[in-house]
Amino acid sequence: MKVPLSWLKDYVDIDMPLHEIARALTMLGLEVDEVRLVGLPMPVQEQHEFRFTGLSWETDKIVVAQINEVMPHPNADRLVLCRLYDGTQELVILTGAPNLYPYKGQGALEKPLKVAYAREGAKIYDGHQPGQVLTTLKRTKIRGFESFSMVCSEKELGISDEHEGVIILDDDAPTGMPLVDYMGDAVFDISILPNMIRNACIVGVARELAALTNKPLRKPKRTQPMDGPSIEGQVAIQITDSNLNPRFVVGLLRGAVPRPSPYWVQRRLRLAGMRPINSIVDATNYVMLELGEPLHAFDYDVLVKRADGKAPTIITRAAKQGEVLTTLDGIERKLDDFTILVCDTAGALSLAGVMGGLESEVTEQTRNVLLEGATWNFINTRRTVAAQKLSSEAAYRFARGIHPALALEGVELGLDRMAAWSGGQIAAGFVDAYPKPAVDPVVTLSEADVQRHLGIALSAKQIAALLRRLEFECTVNGSVVLAKTPPHRLDIGSDVVGQADLIEEIARHYGYDVIPETRLSDSLPPQRGNPLLDREEQLRDTLVNLGLQEIVTYRLTAPEREARLLEVANAPYVELANPIAPERRVLRRSLLASVLEVAERNSRLSDRLALFEIGPVFLPVAEKALPVEQARLAIVLSGERNPAAWDRSAGEPYDFYDLKGILEALFDALHINPVEYLPIEHSYYHPGKCARICAGETTFGVFGELHPLVKERYEFGSAPVLAAELDLSSILDLMPERYETRAVPVFPPVLEDIAVVVDENVPAERVRAVIQQAGGKLLTEIRLFDIFRGSQIGAGKKSMAYSLTYQAPDRTMTDQEAAQVRQRIIRRLEQELGAKIRSQ
Amino acid sequence: MPEGQTIIEQLEQIQQSALRALEMVQDEAALQEWRVAHLGRHSSVMQIFSHLSEVPKEERPRIGQRANQVKQALEAALEARAKQLKRLALERSLTSERLDVTLPGRQPVRGRLHPTTQTLRKIYSIFADMGFQIYRSRDVETDEYNFELLNIPAYHPARDMWDTFHTTRPGVILRTHTSPGQIHAMREFAPEPVRVILPGMCYRYEQISARSEIQFNQVEVLAVGRKITFSDMKGTLNDFARRMFGAQARTRLRPSYFPFTEPSAEMDVECFVCGGKGCQICKGSGWLEIMGCGMVHPIVLQNGGYDPRQYSGFAAGMGPERITLLLHRIEDIRYFWANDVRFLTQF
Predict the structure, then answer these.
(1) Nearest CA in chain A to B214
(2) CA separation (Å) from B49 to B1, B41, B45, B65, B94?
(3) Which of A23, A192, A500, A692 is in the most buried spot, having the most CB atoms within 10 Å?
(4) Is the backbone of residue B339 left (phi > 0), alpha (psi -120 to 50) or beta?
(5) pLDDT single digits (tens) A767-807
(6) For B155, which residue in chain A has the nearest alpha carbon?
(7) Does any CB of chain B come closer than 8 Å to the CB of residue A677?
(8) Per-residue pLDDT tens over the stretch B70-109
(9) If DSSP codes are grouped into helix, strand and coil, which group holds residue B4?
(10) Å from B133 to nearest chain A CA?
(11) What is the pLDDT of residue A282?
């Protein structure tokens, strides 16, 4: 909402500097995005709290002047010479403005033209360049004529983009006055909050400022007589559904002539962001901006014609599904049954509250105007706007709810402005169909309510005083205020909701910045903590400590992106109805696929990648509205284990056992044990380099080296890619709440090595398990330190060398005792695994 | 065997020549050689001991004593020389072993948390100190929880505030904020007082650009109880801001609108880049918008299972990525999910 300062001042006295006005508005919830200067000087301030743009007009260089005569240029048809008086002297000025051509060669003008005149050295915008480019007026020669100053267009003065002709001011502009004093302005660009549509008008903003500064609000008043022949019998109104159309008011203006509006009207409309059309259409827009009630003007004679010469009947109703109407913009629109129509007996006239129809619109030929002010159901309006992809200033307002009281005020003011600018006679009276009168809520609010919500002690009198400034009718009854909502707003509810609404109004006008700061004194809730999150964070920390980089990826992806990894077609996805792009049209099913994409992008940037992510995947469940959101942990390793440096060349690339080591260290840190790693075949892993991770009966993850064919689908280098995906909640569940420690041994251990030759296909874990079982409690540590294969031990065999530690908790073990354990171990290895023990 | 006096003289010579030889010794090996030569079994002084029996009886004690003195003198000299050599060797090594200390060190591999996680943890810990516990809820939500129970009925003008991703299942959407968690938390805890923060990923239908993302984290704050006021909200959020942005941080609350709070406010913190003078980061305003907040709307309290006549509360919502962006002057919000290692390794 663009609010010109000059217009605001019609309704309230404002004596604050510009930035203070902007701050006051912002602190009322009318956030000022920008202040555009239209002539006024740039405020001097320490803090640039707001963005100021636009042009300041120098008082001595840009003034009101009058053109006394327009003369042809001796050798250029498209230029004219003007005899101009700038308050101090008469000069001859060169200009090419087409809107001066009609005055050419008329001799001295009977009524001089008032114009905006820029003297030599004035800083203005270049009218010939697109956008706003500052330029300084310099002496130059055009077609043999010396030019050093100019008559300006709106574009050159930064009022609008208009550069068709020069500004012709209203006749009362005082010649010689600095232009900034005559019409210098500033426009506040305000964001209107959804619940503040009442302030999407100049009067609304003025009301807020008046309330804040405790000054009277001067509401706009009618100035033209309303004494033409009565409207009675000239038109009938028929409302089919009062829920769709609670009120419909019309007034009639006879004998108007559409013409250009006075310059100040055109300028205000442009400053507010609207385009002047003619004095009739401008009046409807002007009143909408002024009061917030969108109006619609019909050509009355067209309506009469459509009614075969009889008085027309206006009918409002819901459209039939598929009904067709051509709107003002020339588009034929197919309508839905939620769209409300304004019709007459011959058919649809306009999309209620959104846009008029082509046939009945006001044209240059219109003389008799039927002016509509109505109220429409905001939901239907919103749905129409969405369905027709059609927005308008009117629809913007109606879609947020406009109070029915404004319909009558709007028509009255609209007719008045129309008559003032277009002539004609206003018919006495209105035709007002108001089947569903608005009920303005009365809310009871006590001092205690305000104290309980805001933490400030206000007396009932103070509360009433604040609300009265906003036009609430208040009755004070002891510590209680009864506040009746003023008839221009629909945002106040009843009962507890109404109380909250009023408390907000009190807080806003009391000042959010004045409300004190306190610490919570309410009792603390039971302390439950969030143990699962604590564990998750511990998991994150451990992975980081193990040298992994955490990443966070998009949870939106596309099936074909995941198919590189998953290969599964037709897996059910949570699919978006309105994706932003095809490659982000479903929620992921695989966390690893996301992490692999990141690894792929980074693989060219880094010699060594060690990434992990913790996050959900989304698995739809048949018969259920919401998918299962399963938290996972994914890890990807690739590249050099030890990248090259000045003192060493690059080592081996990461392999299976690096990833396994990370997992082992992770579970060790989280005190999850025992964990088993069992071979498994899996679609996207190398069949021989893949394992599942189990605790008891549960498998809670799979890891391994990416299958070479899967890896080929990505742009990775030659190094193998190691990957893991684990179920997070299983890990968190397996983390014990407590764990116990062992005493540090005080008696010396017996250490010895043993080399076991077994068949190649015996897994290491099997050997270890047999040793452990046979060794019993006295065997406290088994460390595999070498695996050897060679002709000495025979084909298909391997020799595994273990370092064993025997230790008793309560005594020094003798060599004899150790030898017994050793014998037991050897016997079991021989019996169960057919192992041979290599002599040492 | 020569007579006693000659032997004494001989011992004198042995001592002197041995000490002279010791002065020539320059390293450990030579030192060992010297020890063997001058104190070993076949050394001159030891020879004298072994031939002591051949000396006349009355001379023996004198010669024996003297030989002992020589032997001890040589041993002492040996020890001193050994120490001296060790010291010299150390000095040599200290002067010769000079490293180029400007060569890069061997850095152990260090993992890092994603910047969002780091900011989230800061937020968690500040609110934990104020008694707020963490409550998480799901990403995919129903329209009912995301909108309707939060006082945003269908076709309400406020719906324009959220560009929503809808799923192909009617009524199922990606949450546009963590506010549905407010209802989940209240319904779980009513009628106990509530003091939680609700972190989580949210989604908005927006074009991805340097300034906007389709997914972002949000942390919502919710306090519900029997005597919670707007002043409490102001105090709590200001305490947070001062801990997050520095003890000097100035803040302001200005009126705003959210359907699930009333009164509603936007909290700004004075731009810490320019100190409020106006710069590119704060777009000339001197203030940075950091969170929306307000008193929980009576309808939301009701939907959560609390009687708005007896209970009140406040809620606030902030974006950890935005906070990170401001704190570290990150120019492009897309960096967060792009996960370029050149970005991540700066944290």
Answers:
(1) A580
(2) 13, 10, 7, 10, 43
(3) A500
(4) left
(5) 999 999 999 999 999 999 999 999 888 899 999 999 999 99
(6) A379
(7) no
(8) 889 999 999 999 999 899 889 988 988 889 999 999 888 8
(9) helix
(10) 6
(11) 97
A124: left (phi over 0), alpha (psi -120 to 50) or beta: beta
| pLDDT (0 to 100) of residue B45 | 83
From chain A, the residues in CB contact with B263 under 8 A are 454, 500, 503-504, 507-508, 512
Decide: residue B244, CB within 10 A, 0-12 exposed, 13-18 middle, 19+ buried. middle
Query: A38-69: string of b/e by CB count within 10 Å (b at 16+)?
Result: bbbeebeeebbbbbbebbbbbeebbbbbbbeb
Which of A243, A452, A522 should be substituted to probe chain B, the one whose Cβ sees the most B Cβ atoms within 10 Å?
A522
ipTM higher than the 0.85 cut: yes
Give yes or no for a contact between A357 and A331, defined as CB atoms under 8 angstroms apart: no
- Chain A residues close to B105, C-beta within 8 Å: none
With 90 as the cut, is the pLDDT of residue A571 above it? Answer: no
The separation between CA A361 and the C-alpha centre of its own chain, rounded to angstroms, equals 36
Residue A774's pLDDT is 95
The pair phi, psi for residue B35, each rounded to 5°, is -60, -45
Beta-carbon separation of A47 and B276 below 8 A: yes
Query: What DSSP string runs through A516-564?
Result: ------SPPPP----HHHHHHHHHHHHHHHTTPEE----SEE-HHHHHH
- Give me the mean pLDDT over the A690-706 stretch: 95
Give the Cα-Cα-Cα angle A337, A342, A346 (nearest 5 degrees): 100
Q: Is the pLDDT of residue B66 over 60?
A: yes
What's the pLDDT at B117?
Answer: 97
Nearest to B232 among A47, A399, A455 (CB): A455
Burial class (CB in 10 A: 0-12, 13-18, 19+), A387: middle
Helix/strand/coil for A798: strand
- As a whole-number percent, the residues of chain A with pLDDT over 90 amount to 85
DSSP for B24-71, please give it: H--SHHHHHHHHHHHHSTTSHHHHHHHTGGGS-TTTHHHHHHHHHHHH
Torsion of the alpha carbons at B333, B338, B343 and B344, rounded to the nearest 10: 110
d(CA A391, CA A355): 9
Of B103, B108, B254, the CB nearest to A29: B254
Chain centroid, CA A608 distance in Å: 39
Query: What's the CATH class of domain B115-344?
Result: alpha beta
* Residues A602-656 pLDDT 10s: 998 888 999 999 999 999 998 899 999 999 999 999 999 888 889 888 789 999 9
Which tens digits make up the pLDDT trace of A78-114? 889 999 999 999 999 888 889 999 998 888 999 999 9
Find the angle CA(A682)-CA(A684)-CA(A688) to the nearest 5 degrees.
55
pLDDT for B162: 84
* Burial group, residue A548, by CB count within 10 angstroms (0-12, 13-18, 19+): buried
Interfacial A residues in 511-530 facing B (CB < 8 Å): 512-513, 515-530
- % of chain B at pLDDT higher than 70: 99
How high is the mean pLDDT of chain A? 94
Distance from CA of B304 to the nearest CA of A (A): 15
Closest CA to A204 of A547, A491, A411: A491
Token duo for residue B84: 């001296």
CA distance A832 to chain B (A): 43
A378 chain-B contacts, CB cut-off 8 A: 155, 157
In this complex, the residue of A512, A574, A608 whose CB is nearest that of residue B140 is A574
Whole-number Å distance between alpha carbons of A177 and A161: 24
Would the CB atoms of B231 and A455 count as touching at under 8 Å?
yes
**Domain extents in chain B:** 4-96, 115-344
Please tell me which residue of chain A has the smallest CA distance to B168. Answer: A577
